[in-house]
C-alpha cells in the first residue's frame, strides 16, 4: 500500500512544478501591449478560487502549455510529475504540427470527450485568456479577430457544460459582457 504524500511533500512537488514552468516559459511573453511574462498565466489560481483542490489538476494547470509552447516533452512531464499529470497535460495540449484552424476545430470537437479533470483546466485556461483579451487587445489583433476568438471560445466552453458551475458562471458573465450568444 502506497503511503500518501505529506503536506510538506505536496508543497515541495507543487513548488517544483511552478519552478519547472517558470524556467520553461522564462523567455516567453504574452502578445499584449505590456508584454506580460507568460508565466503570469495563473490558471491554477482560477481553479483554487473555484474550489478545485485536486493536486494533479493544479499541477496540470501550471504545466498545461509547457509541451505546446516550449521544448518540453510528455516524457519529461511524466518523469518529473508522474503518469497522471502527463496524461492530463496531453489531453489539454494542441498538436502544433496541425494548421491553426484545424487545432481550433479539434478543440471544439474534443471538448466534450476529454476527462472531467482536463475540462477543469481547459475552462480555467479559457477564463484567463478571455479576461486577458478583455483587459488588453494583443498587438496586431483587430476588433474582428477578438470577436472571433470570443465566439470560438464559447463553442469550446459550451461543449464542456456541466463540468463546474463556478467556472461556467464566470464564463457566462464574460460572454454576456461581450454579447456572445
UniProtKB/TrEMBL annotation:
- UniProt KW Metal-binding keyword: yes
Is-annotated flag, keyword Manganese? Answer: yes
Q: Which reaction does it catalyse?
A: guanosine 3',5'-bis(diphosphate) + H2O = GDP + diphosphate + H(+)
Identify the EC number(s).
3.1.7.2
Q: Which Pfam families match?
A: HD_4
Q: Which cofactor does it need?
A: Mn(2+)
Q: Please provide, alphabetically and separated by semicolons, the GO molecular function terms listed in this UniProt record.
A: guanosine-3',5'-bis(diphosphate) 3'-diphosphatase activity; metal ion binding
Per its database record, what is this protein's job?
ppGpp hydrolyzing enzyme involved in starvation response.
The molecule here is called Guanosine-3',5'-bis(diphosphate) 3'-pyrophosphohydrolase MESH1
| Source organism of the structure | Anopheles epiroticus
Lineage runs: Eukaryota, Metazoa, Ecdysozoa, Arthropoda, Hexapoda
